[in-house]
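hey so i finally got around to running the thing on that chain from the lab meeting. sorry it took forever, my laptop kept dying and i had to restart like 3 times. anyway pasting the input first so we r on the same page abt which one it is
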Amino acid sequence: MNQDGKGLDVQGDIPQQIDISKADTITCDDCGNASFIQAFFLKKISALMSPTGKEAIVPMQVFSCGNCGAIPKNMIDQAAQ
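ok and heres what got predicted. didnt touch it at all, straight out
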């Protein structure tokens, strides 16, 4: 806890108690649905780039719309990096 008792974590930068009712609900850009399911992009890493020297497949978690299956554009951008 910080000096004013607001309950910051050990690093002192993230509040321990958050009023989730004040957070914005993310909705699908394509259909407006507010529920998402877990999905994965699979990235193939060549043996030349792999730290083990062997080809590897790395899963990258994203969320897709539970209604239309669309993946938010910001997640596609992050997965492409």
